[in-house]
Amino acid sequence: MLVSIACSGQKFKIYSDNQAGLYRLKTPSDHPGQAYQIRAIKAAEVIKAKGAEISLNWVPGHTSVEGNELADKLAKEATTIRPISNETSFGLLGMIVKECASDQWLDTLNQYELRSKPNPINLLEAISMENWLEIKLPSGTNRKYC
């Protein structure tokens, strides 16, 4: 939106109470949301190329800063709107791959638990002492010494 109205000499100040979001705009990353991050960075570059100035400013949240509560409300509403783009980022793809790998690992673990052998200690409880001695003592051993 600012890209279409920006002209030389204008100054745009963007305020946010989200320090992490402001930081991400200054330092590109490959985390989820990368496509939006790149889009915002490119828009800022176009605005600067037109000769306008743009600044990102942090304001404390929930401290009655004029307009901040309305901005929070609008941001929450925006999260319910379906995206108009089908673009994705490497960060989101990486997150999906990790989730699939984790699901496969858990499935494998659950299958192992279903077919695993009973605990040997429980088997010992099921064997009588007489049978246990027969198992442990070599044949021909006199039991009266045991």
Automatic annotation (TrEMBL):
Question: Which key words tag this protein in UniProt?
Answer: Endonuclease, Hydrolase, Metal-binding, Nuclease
One GO biological-process annotation of the entry reads: DNA replication, removal of RNA primer
Which PROSITE patterns does the entry mention? Answer: RNASE_H_1
Broad enzyme group? hydrolase
Q: Name one GO molecular function term.
A: metal ion binding
Reaction(s) catalysed by this chain, per the record, are: Endonucleolytic cleavage to 5'-phosphomonoester
What name does UniProt use for this protein? Answer: ribonuclease H
| Protein species of origin | Monilinia fructigena
